Amino acid sequence: MLRFSTAGESHGESLVALVSGLPAGVPVDQEFISRELWRRQKGYGRGGRMRIERDTAHILSGVRHGKTIGSPVAMTIANNDWKNWTDILPVEEGDPAKHKAVASPRPGHADLAGALKYNFPDARYVLERASARESTARVASGALAKLLLRELGVEVLSHVIRVGKAELSRPAKWEEIVALSQKDEVLLNCVDLEDEARMKAEVDAVLRTGDTVGGVFEVIVHGLPPGIGTHVNWDERLDGILAQAVMSLQAVKAVEIGRGVTAAESFGSTVHDAIGYEGSEEDFTKFSRDHNNAGGLEGGISNGQDVIVRGYLKPISTLRRPLASVSFETREPVKAAYERSDVCVVPAAGVAAEAMVALAVARQVLVKFGGDSLAETKRNYNGYLQQIRKY
Ligand code: EPS
């Protein structure tokens, strides 16, 4: 069973990722992992922290001679900023005078709920783990899932379709999203330059006013055959699994599959993707569809079209012009704490969501096809592809 977990505080020594259940023999391209980490760091609207960090995964185990060996893969990603925090957040008791309390909880952040739950006098320890810095470890883990999926011809990428009120005004083609992922500059990860300029203006406006802005990213799984996930049990439906995977990302407040939201206000005759029998040799079967409003999922099962998952991001909750809050110490009204922060993270969140989607899909692929070695997984996979082609 493919599993992963992460550890690490935002300003601690490093982040840790542990991925187990990958078959043996998956080629591990370390440059690819670094590139994925780089993509997550980029985007217009990121704060000062991203000028400090140069995220790279240090692989400790589970990979030898460039391939997985079936044992758990442990990775660390060092926090460069740690050197500035050794006195503030030491593992030992340290000097309490040097600790940096988060003295008033930020509305929208985990600060208050976390401090109450864990009985902390302030929100420092909550912030440290609730921070989206943790998504770095998810991206390193997701890169391994992507490398496995790539062996099966499945790719996972994202692009940004909204920042604040600025929206992508036209459908994006898969080739455009691939081209975006290969660029050496990342602005807002939007396929349309004019729409991207309007998105940038949204970020500029909040930079001026001390506010923050959210948006929507879209993750696409390209090349996934029909039959991943199942309708038979609630917790094995791929749509539900993907929703949880993406919703678990910091600042995501809603998840949509395909045309989920506007489908609710439309007629069935305009929403469902009519079935034909005109598929080409490149398709998984000859069954074809007139569009993809279902987002590649019907009954919790992939149907061979691109899987489309959208994540809706709230605006970052750390504001330069903070909202009302209460002092943890005096209980008097004060402004919420301010710490260095980003003002827009929609492109970065999209990259983190790619990782979560890749991990979730890879897990379900392995549930269906199994395999202790990549050769075994591929044999089972290809046998199934032949079966559905002949159906
Ligand atoms: C974050 C606050 C900022 C962000 C951080 C998430 O960090 P810092 O407090 O060090 O300035 O930059 O995101 C990352 C470090 C990252 O790698 O994405 C927060 O409070 O959630």
**Structural shape:** globular
What oligomerization state is this entry in? single chain
CATH topology: Chorismate synthase, AroC fold
**CATH level-four homologous superfamily name:** Chorismate synthase AroC
> What CATH first level would be assigned?
Alpha Beta
Number of strands: 17
Q: What order do the SSEs take from the amino end to the carboxyl end, as H and E?
A: EEHHEEEEHHHEEHHEHEHHEEEEEEEHH
- Return the domain count: 1
N→C terminal distance: 29 Å
Largest sheet properties: 5 strands, antiparallel
Total number of helices:
12
Within the largest sheet, what's the order of strands? 8-7-9-15-10
- In CATH terms, what is the architecture? 4-Layer Sandwich
Report the bound ligands by name, code or SMILES.
ligand EPS
Low-pLDDT runs of 5+ residues are none
Which percent bin holds the helix content? 25-40%
CA radius of gyration is 22 Å
- Average predicted local confidence, pLDDT: 97
Report the sheet-strand fraction: 15-25%
| Coarse structural class | alpha+beta
Please characterize this protein's 3D structure:
- The protein is α+β, with helices and mostly antiparallel strands.
- The protein has one domain (about 5-390): 4-Layer Sandwich (Chorismate synthase, AroC fold).
- About 35% of the residues lie in helices and about 20% in strands.
- It contains 12 helices and 17 strands.
- It has helices spanning about 30-40, 50, 110-120, 125-130, 135-150, 175-180, 195-210, 240-245, 260-265, 270, 345-370, 375-390, and strands spanning about 5, 15-20, 55-60, 65, 65-70, 75-80, 155-165, 165, 215-220, 250-255, 275, 290, 295-300, 300, 305-315, 325, 335.
- The strands form 6 sheets. The chain has a 5-stranded antiparallel β-sheet with strand order 8-7-9-15-10. Strands 1-2-6-3 form a 4-stranded antiparallel β-sheet.
- A hairpin with a 6-residue loop joins strand 16 (about 325) and strand 17.
- Helix 1 runs antiparallel to helix 11 (about 345-370), helix 5 crosses helix 11 (about 345-370) and helix 8 runs antiparallel to helix 11.
- The longest helix is centred in the C-terminal third of the chain and has 24 residues, at about 345-370.
- The chain starts with a strand and ends with a helix.
- Bound molecules: ligand EPS.
